[in-house]
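User: Design a sequence. Structure:
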């Protein structure tokens, strides 16, 4: 009886272990490969540089995040003009697929 249980546990271990080892590092939906991650970091740097060169956008108050060539702008700006301009500048960078302009215009409370 003990041998039967031992062989059963051993068999299950030999069958289940390879299945769990082969599924560990697959890239799934919603994740990036190492190359995509580097491309996104490069694109983020290009957008930040373009914003810094623009006289209207306040680059030092704008956060830029990129995921699969989609750029998200967040942070606070002083005017609607700055928000609109930042979105235009980001969209003008080569390689940017979409811009999500989540900048918030400060109100004078």
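Assistant: Done.
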């Amino acid at each position: 009886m003990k041998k039967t249980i031992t062989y059963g546990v051993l068999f299950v271990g030999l069958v289940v272990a390879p299945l769990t080892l082969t599924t560990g590092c697959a890239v799934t939906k919603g994740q990036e490969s190492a190359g995509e991650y580097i491309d996104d970091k490069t694109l983020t740097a290009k957008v930040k540089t373009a914003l810094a060169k623009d006289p209207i956008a306040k680059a030092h108050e704008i956060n830029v995040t990129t995921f699969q060539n989609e750029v998200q702008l967040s942070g606070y700006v002083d005017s609607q003009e700055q928000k609109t301009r930042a979105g235009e500048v980001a969209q003008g960078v080569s390689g940017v697929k979409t811009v999500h302009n989540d900048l918030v215009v400060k109100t004078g409370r």
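The longest helix spans residues 2-21. Residues 81 and 97 are 22 Å apart (CA to CA).
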